[in-house]
Amino acid sequence: MDAGNGKRGIDGGIVRLLIIVLLGVGLISVPWLTHSRLVAGEEAVDAAWADVESNLQRRADLVPNLVRSLRQYMTHESETLVRLVRERAEALSEALGEAHEIETSRIAGLDAALSQDLGRLMRQAGEHPDLRSGDQFLRFQAQLEGSENRLNVARMRYNEAVREYNAGLRGFVGRWVAEPMGLRSRDYFEASPAATEPFAVEF
Q1: How many helical (H) and strand (E) elements, i.e. helices and strands, does the chain have?
Q2: Membrane-spanning residues where (predicted)?
Q3: How many whole angstroms separate alpha carbon 187 and alpha carbon 55?
């Protein structure tokens, strides 16, 4: 009996020890894995934002070509719009160069303003038969449309990365891990309706 009781005591002690070890491993590994997942999500958001910035910069860099193509065809009344588009593109380029962290609301506002004015300018350009039939303008139009498509894809990928990252932050363990580690939620890139409209020129 005593030998059996001793064996059961040893078995019970081992089981309790295993339970304690497993709980300890769980308490350490779950926050560690959650933190690693959140950090990976944050990196994915930053990478996606870099793609958005790259495409925004590409589009802004196309504007000087547009201005050169349109300047000789624009009437005096349209010169103000041409100048405004150029200034919008310069402001967007400067904001992209100055930003040390993701500033979606500021960048989205500048992007929306440039998109709206570009749309107006392209519609006016469509009223000039000589311009819209020129090779230089047609090449520029194709580049701009391609840039818009790439930018739209980059925006969607960024917002998807933000959605997954923010969902991880809102989880039970995610909230507990994120605050002490200084991880914070990210904003979506919310473009205006005008920013998503293609710059089609009616022939």
Answers
A1: 6, 0
A2: 12-33
A3: 19
Q: What is the pLDDT of residues 106-159, one digit of tens each?
A: 888 889 888 888 888 878 777 776 666 667 777 777 888 888 889 999 999 999
Q: Does residue 52 contact residue 95 with C-beta atoms inside 8 Å?
A: no
**pLDDT tens digit sequence for 108-122:** 888 988 888 888 887
CA angle 130, 131, 133 (to 5 degrees): 70
49: closest CA among 182, 186, 178, 148? 186
What is the number of other CB atoms lying within 10 angstroms of the CB of residue 167? 12
User: What one-character-per-residue DSSP string does 171-182 give?
Assistant: SHHHHHHHHHHT
